[in-house]
Amino acid sequence: MTELRAGISGWDWVTLANENGEVHAPAAGEGWLVPAEIRVRNDRLLYHFFGRQRRMPIINNPGSSLLAEFVSLVDSPDEKFVSFARQRGILGLCRHGLPYPHRAVTGDQSWNQMVNCFPGRLRRGSKPGGRPDYWLWEPLASWRLYTRVARATLNIVAELRQRRHGRREDWLVLFPFPPLEASIPIDKNPWHYISSVLEDWFASKPARLSFTLSDAGQLKVAVDHIAGGLFEYLRLQLAFAVGRGAGLALCASCAQLYSPTRRPNPNRLSYCPKCGRGAAMRAASARYRERHKEGK
Known about the structure:
By secondary structure, this protein is an alpha+beta fold. It folds into two domains: 11-241, no CATH class; 247-296, no CATH class. It has seven helices and twelve strands. The chain has helices at 66-71, 78-88, 140-160, 168-174, 190-203, 230-242, 276-295; strands at residues 32-34, 37-41, 44-48, 58-60, 102-103, 114-115, 120-126, 132-139, 209-213, 219-223, 249-250, 257-258. The protein has a four-stranded antiparallel β-sheet. It has a two-stranded antiparallel sheet with strand order 1-4. It has a two-stranded antiparallel sheet with strand order 5-6. A hairpin with a 2-residue loop joins strand 2 and strand 3. It is flat.
């Protein structure tokens, strides 16, 4: 498990992290495909789903530490991003560095029109039969930006929950320029701006999870569909971390979200009412047999 030490000593005080400083947030679903071949070149993350050996891509599962692993990449060298992508997959960004489809940024389309953009392509050779074969690529700079924004958001939320405004350097990561609609000063209602950050993460792709964030920082979440990729899981976990779990938990047996009667312990598995104690007992028996096997 990747350990994440918070940028501000206080994440463990506000239940954004456990006692080891690790951020844990729920995720749901069956995972996503990870390309068979990934490398970096000229600040581009190149990937090919089958690779030269025509291997099938692996299927990844999120786990509760995904967000912590992602945020720990801040200020890391290129090789760390490649290592993470080989284990966790690609974000699914287009050549503009945005999750696709996204609102038009160039051309004659209206600025708010959704367009089907795609990853960049780079010729890498030919397939059997002479057809061209391509790398797909994502801007590594956009990966770095998303890691910084996620860390800054968690840092600020940790400060807000301790009735402090947050560090200026973290706010500047989120808003390098004053927002045009700054009719509400940040110090008057900082949660309004944290909400706008989450909206940016959820705006690009079709909505799979809807939320409302109150002025007091309370998050209410409704799940419409299971998230389908790395970026969707990251934004889901970020929203849960900001909102302290929002009253939903992930069943360790059926991998479905449910509403617990009390907040689950982040260091223990939790089960929905349908799976219940039976699933917990089966999991405990499996762990016992595994330990017994290793002891022989």
